[in-house]
Amino acid sequence: MSKIQTNPSIITRDVDKIAEKTGNVYESISIISQRARQISSKMKEELSGKLSEFASSVDNLEEIFENREQIEISKYYERMPKPSALAIDDFMADKVDFRIREEGTDEK
Questions:
Q1: Which of 96, 59, 58, 83 lies closest to 4, judged by CA?
Q2: What percent of the chain has pLDDT over 70?
Q3: Residue 50 CB-density burial (10 A; 0-12 exposed, 13-18 middle, 19+ buried)
Q4: Quick one: CA torsion of 14, 18, 23, 24, rounded to 10 degrees?
Q5: Which pTM value belongs to this model?
Q6: Coiled-coil ranges per the record (predicted)?
Q7: Which of 4, 22, 36, 81 could bond to 87 as cystine, CB 3.0-4.6 Å?
Protein backbone atom coordinates (compact mmCIF):
# COMPACT_ATOMS: atom_id res chain seq x y z
CA MET A 1 0.00 0.00 0.00
CA SER A 2 1.26 3.43 -0.85
CA LYS A 3 2.40 5.66 1.97
CA ILE A 4 0.88 9.11 1.62
CA GLN A 5 1.78 11.62 4.29
CA THR A 6 -0.45 14.61 4.90
CA ASN A 7 -2.14 16.32 7.79
CA PRO A 8 -5.42 14.48 8.52
CA SER A 9 -7.05 17.44 10.28
CA ILE A 10 -9.04 20.15 8.57
CA ILE A 11 -6.98 23.19 7.65
CA THR A 12 -8.27 26.66 6.93
CA ARG A 13 -6.89 27.72 3.55
CA ASP A 14 -6.07 31.26 2.47
CA VAL A 15 -8.11 31.88 -0.66
CA ASP A 16 -5.69 34.57 -1.83
CA LYS A 17 -2.79 32.08 -1.80
CA ILE A 18 -4.85 29.59 -3.78
CA ALA A 19 -5.83 32.25 -6.33
CA GLU A 20 -2.27 33.58 -6.52
CA LYS A 21 -1.04 30.64 -8.60
CA THR A 22 -3.48 31.21 -11.50
CA GLY A 23 -4.71 34.75 -10.92
CA ASN A 24 -8.28 33.49 -10.47
CA VAL A 25 -9.69 31.51 -7.56
CA TYR A 26 -12.17 29.68 -9.81
CA GLU A 27 -9.45 28.47 -12.17
CA SER A 28 -7.42 27.29 -9.18
CA ILE A 29 -10.40 25.39 -7.78
CA SER A 30 -11.04 23.84 -11.20
CA ILE A 31 -7.43 22.64 -11.39
CA ILE A 32 -7.60 21.29 -7.83
CA SER A 33 -10.86 19.44 -8.56
CA GLN A 34 -9.40 17.84 -11.70
CA ARG A 35 -6.37 16.70 -9.69
CA ALA A 36 -8.67 15.34 -6.95
CA ARG A 37 -10.55 13.28 -9.55
CA GLN A 38 -7.25 11.87 -10.83
CA ILE A 39 -6.17 10.92 -7.31
CA SER A 40 -9.59 9.44 -6.54
CA SER A 41 -9.65 7.23 -9.63
CA LYS A 42 -6.10 6.05 -8.96
CA MET A 43 -7.00 5.17 -5.35
CA LYS A 44 -10.19 3.41 -6.49
CA GLU A 45 -8.28 1.28 -9.01
CA GLU A 46 -5.67 0.43 -6.37
CA LEU A 47 -8.36 -0.51 -3.84
CA SER A 48 -10.29 -2.63 -6.35
CA GLY A 49 -7.11 -4.47 -7.30
CA LYS A 50 -6.25 -5.23 -3.69
CA LEU A 51 -9.79 -6.31 -2.81
CA SER A 52 -10.02 -8.60 -5.84
CA GLU A 53 -7.01 -10.56 -4.55
CA PHE A 54 -9.11 -11.66 -1.58
CA ALA A 55 -12.48 -12.01 -3.32
CA SER A 56 -14.41 -15.19 -2.69
CA SER A 57 -15.74 -17.16 -5.63
CA VAL A 58 -19.01 -18.06 -3.89
CA ASP A 59 -22.05 -16.40 -5.46
CA ASN A 60 -24.59 -17.79 -3.02
CA LEU A 61 -26.64 -14.97 -1.52
CA GLU A 62 -27.59 -17.07 1.51
CA GLU A 63 -24.00 -17.47 2.62
CA ILE A 64 -22.11 -14.27 3.25
CA PHE A 65 -18.58 -14.74 4.47
CA GLU A 66 -16.67 -12.10 6.36
CA ASN A 67 -13.25 -11.68 4.82
CA ARG A 68 -10.86 -10.13 7.36
CA GLU A 69 -8.27 -9.13 4.75
CA GLN A 70 -10.84 -7.19 2.73
CA ILE A 71 -12.11 -5.48 5.87
CA GLU A 72 -8.59 -4.43 6.91
CA ILE A 73 -7.79 -3.09 3.43
CA SER A 74 -11.08 -1.16 3.35
CA LYS A 75 -10.43 0.35 6.79
CA TYR A 76 -6.94 1.39 5.69
CA TYR A 77 -8.35 3.24 2.67
CA GLU A 78 -11.06 4.87 4.80
CA ARG A 79 -8.38 6.30 7.10
CA MET A 80 -6.38 7.75 4.21
CA PRO A 81 -6.63 11.48 3.52
CA LYS A 82 -9.37 12.49 1.12
CA PRO A 83 -8.40 13.12 -2.52
CA SER A 84 -9.45 16.77 -2.27
CA ALA A 85 -7.04 17.39 0.62
CA LEU A 86 -4.23 15.68 -1.28
CA ALA A 87 -5.01 17.72 -4.40
CA ILE A 88 -4.89 20.99 -2.47
CA ASP A 89 -1.55 20.00 -0.93
CA ASP A 90 -0.17 19.11 -4.37
CA PHE A 91 -1.40 22.39 -5.85
CA MET A 92 0.02 24.52 -3.05
CA ALA A 93 3.38 22.68 -3.25
CA ASP A 94 3.58 23.31 -7.03
CA LYS A 95 3.39 19.60 -7.81
CA VAL A 96 0.56 20.06 -10.33
CA ASP A 97 1.38 20.98 -13.92
CA PHE A 98 -1.28 22.99 -15.70
CA ARG A 99 -1.71 25.29 -18.69
CA ILE A 100 -4.21 28.07 -19.04
CA ARG A 101 -5.65 28.22 -22.56
CA GLU A 102 -5.66 31.54 -24.33
CA GLU A 103 -9.11 32.75 -25.36
CA GLY A 104 -8.17 33.14 -29.03
CA THR A 105 -7.07 29.52 -29.57
CA ASP A 106 -9.36 26.80 -30.88
CA GLU A 107 -8.50 23.34 -29.59
CA LYS A 108 -10.58 20.48 -30.87
A1: 83
A2: 79
A3: middle
A4: -90
A5: 0.75
A6: none
A7: 36
